[in-house]
Amino acid sequence: MPENGSFRNCCEGGRAWRPGWPGAGGGQPSGHPRPPWVAPALFSVLVVTTVVDVLGNLLVILSVLRNRRLRNYAGNLFLVSLALADLVVALYPYPLILMAIFHDGWALGEVHCKASAFVMGLSVICSVFNITAIAINRYCYICHSVAYNRIYRHWHTPLYICLVWLLTVVALVPNFFVGSLEYDPRIYSCTFNQTTSTQYTVAVVAIHFLLPMAVVSFCYLRIWLLVLQARRKAKSESRLRLRPSDIRSFLTMFVVFVIFAICWAPLNCIGLAVAISPEEMAPQVPEGLFVTSYFLAYFNSCLNAIIYGLLNQNFRREYKKIISILWNPWFCFQDTSKGSHTEGQQGQDLPVVNAQHPVQADAL
């Protein structure tokens, strides 16, 4: 790949310059000094995000691995994959961004810049694909319960997860040919340059965000309709019943989806608008809005573990056990299986009706 001129300019001497928009302003500084509070604020936000990201996602992974009922449910394996996607970004790109903030510029060389941007993209796109896979899993279980066990056999789910990561890597490869991975001094990050190619940016937003969000919305809409239908039938037929734990379990993943969409929508909307009309829209985007949209997206990586703990009693219970073991190592000699009750039957996390009365989507 040809050496990036904007990268050389922003990294020389370890000092950051501030363009009007990456790739759109000819690589010249804007001449407006950054307010002195911005760097400390961004540094503090990213430190908190990194710490919570690492601790929270490790808790999620350990909770599923420790608890047999959590581990045996296919949908929770996707939660582990999602946690890994959130975890990798805290282990490599975030520390490099903190160093860039500390040095007021990127001083680690182009190789780390490209690698950091690649891992950042890997985390983001893999998170999108995992959330989509989780929604499809819930949709198949609720709306196509008869075929669910055939589609999600024990050995199928790991294959689906590998496919998610493979598609993520394939989706990132074009960035190296387009040359869209660059350093942006406004956010102290090596990231995707939204103005390198209009067509490519539009394709990225459409395929990596809008299309998956549409699929997830469709799946959850059909589930909501089926839940409402089941609740109406439950009033007249005793065998058709919906447990409160089923609703909470479904709501947990729905909240994860909504929070993800809220955190990433501003950045994708800005990127789409600027890509369509760079000369007209780029100067109109306030730097504060752009920086806030990026760090809001970064902050999302630490939220999922918090959501599980707040809304899911199984994860909350496992969190407490793991923390107790770390606080008191003798606790690990106790029988960890005692008290490991679930919100209903975790092996069937989101059943709407019993096995004798599967509800098909076609009945809607």
UniProtKB/TrEMBL annotation:
Membrane topology: Multi-pass membrane protein
Domain of life of the native organism: Eukaryota
The keyword Membrane appears for this protein: yes
Localization terms from the record: Cell membrane
Keywords (A to Z) from UniProt: Cell membrane, Disulfide bond, G-protein coupled receptor, Membrane, Receptor, Transducer, Transmembrane, Transmembrane helix
Membrane spanning residue stretches: 41-65, 77-103, 115-136, 157-180, 200-228, 249-276, 288-311
Pfam families xref list: 7tm_1 (PF00001)
SUPFAM superfamilies: Family A G protein-coupled receptor-like
InterPro entries noted in UniProt: GPCR_Rhodpsn, GPCR_Rhodpsn_7TM, Melatonin_rcpt
Family named by the database record: Belongs to the G-protein coupled receptor 1 family.
The protein, known as: Melatonin receptor 1B
